[in-house]
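Q: What would this complex look like in 3D?
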Amino acid sequence: MRVPAYAAPGARAPLAPFAVDRRDPGPTDVQLEILFCGVCHSDVHQARDEWGSAKFPMVPGHEIVGRVTRVGQGVTRFKVGDLAGVGCMVDSCGRCEPCRRGTEQYCTQGAAFTYNSTEMDRTTPTYGGYSTQVVVRESFALRIPAGMDPAGAAPLLCAGITTYSPLRKWNVQPGQRVGIVGLGGLGHMGVKLAKSMGAEVTLFSTSASKQADARRLGASHFVNTKDPEALKAHAGSFDFLLDTVSAAHDVQGFLSLLRPGSVMVLVGAPPEPMKVGAMALIWGNKALAGSLIGGIPETQEMLDHCGKHGIVSDIEVISMQKINEAYERMLRSDVKYRFVIDLASLKT
Amino acid sequence: MRVPAYAAPGARAPLAPFAVDRRDPGPTDVQLEILFCGVCHSDVHQARDEWGSAKFPMVPGHEIVGRVTRVGQGVTRFKVGDLAGVGCMVDSCGRCEPCRRGTEQYCTQGAAFTYNSTEMDRTTPTYGGYSTQVVVRESFALRIPAGMDPAGAAPLLCAGITTYSPLRKWNVQPGQRVGIVGLGGLGHMGVKLAKSMGAEVTLFSTSASKQADARRLGASHFVNTKDPEALKAHAGSFDFLLDTVSAAHDVQGFLSLLRPGSVMVLVGAPPEPMKVGAMALIWGNKALAGSLIGGIPETQEMLDHCGKHGIVSDIEVISMQKINEAYERMLRSDVKYRFVIDLASLKT
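A: Here is my prediction, written as structure tokens for the whole assembly.
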């Protein structure tokens, strides 16, 4: 079926109305009427071909929450009327070691990402959530916990899992001192999630104006990273750091804040290579790690965790027609903390 | 008691005969007649004040094996006639969290390192193993397994624990693919230890001439790192990498060899900051970590492991009088793979 969407026609053109074909649901597919779709920084990077692999026309959007409207005959986990989510992936081979481990983003055949990618036939382009409908394999659809606000849930599908996964993988424990670097779409989820795991959270930001918000979101402490003395006061005191900043910044300086044997994980990717002295890692047995979204089983675990702890994203709901303006505002950090498109605006 | 030693009188002077005072053993001390002392790269760095914290005159040496000649009345783990080892540390506070965790190198008061440091009174200088006797707290003396060659055992006290600790901490398992980067004093221990843990070991070296030795030491594969195609063939295939190289080199290139979720640990410290792109860590959930020697309990565990597996260091035994020549040869990598001083040469 042909459904309305918004697409980037090319790297230098604003997003504009478009239409995409969605397949009829196969035996293991579910069809969703999309209710809400979050706006991720990577939408802008890819729509503007800043990562060098853009396929146009491109329909961005991988933070999708919708209502199940049709299910294939073999579908067992969803029924018509359920809420469901779709994150960064819509399929993978399912047989390779990374897939079997539940890390489908590292499928050795290459996962089918939700947009700017292809289905596993390697031919059919994938189109994302800036659209009114999507059809996806049941195994890549996530259950939205009962009672969760569907608009606030949408950003959990990318910003949520991106920050949840490293906190879990590196085993953050109640009472530990956790630092979150940067307060944006990722950082605000990092604060909420680390707090929900029982950590004592410190927010590091270059903007003193974010102190009140940091505390409201759950941070016990705030450090202005423009003040070198404030940073020094925390030397060697953190059990874990999550760095969400994608602008150039002094990563090595943050390593000095870790206790011996601790880890700092990057989820934002500064454009230039970082400069890190080997001794900053050797002295203190420290690790600098990276983390990319998360697999499907862990995404469901994250949603269930958020349901249990009453966590959703802080959002500003916009109409589909405001997307180009939203991109500009997001680049200025002028959003607290995630834009979410109400797809009802595309149906009228 | 006053005992013969060799000391660096200053940063630019060769090592020369010297004498040091050793305390009478207290109730919890053991006195060792030093039989052998390994020659570590850090001996040269510190004797030449290349790390900027040298105290002269300096008696280097922290890979010590000796015979117990006196024990304090409270000593329970050693008796006269036992072989014992002393590594990089001779004391620590014993009460802080890192000490209680058995990571005395991170004692919050600062450990008493074996030389170029002070005892915990922060006044008495420590002098290392280029000497005929040493007195040390029982809790910092290591048991040398029965039947182990005392000369070959000496380098285990630094080179051995430095490579053993990261292999254990990052949980290297039988059958895993482990890469060791560089074949020197550290690298050759890395190959032997990884092999003894059941790993399938690959040695990476810039010197094709080291291939035969790598295989003799236990490596199943050899990769000449000057051949970019050879490196590419191993992309994404390693479960763990241990980088022992202290010269400048392309660390990021090795990260591409790791499988998703894997770790590369640095134990050599290149002088210039490394340049690492964030995406090299984010894509693949990889970690770049460091590791510094190891604590006392783990050093004993390493010695016991080596005893069980028949592992010692490959060494060239020299007299104390040849130390300055040995430094020059070591800087040219002209040793397979560790010089060990026979302290009998200082007693005659």
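A: To summarize the key features: Chain A has a mean pLDDT of 97. Residues 235 and 256 of chain A are 6 Å apart (CA to CA).
Q: Very helpful, thank you.
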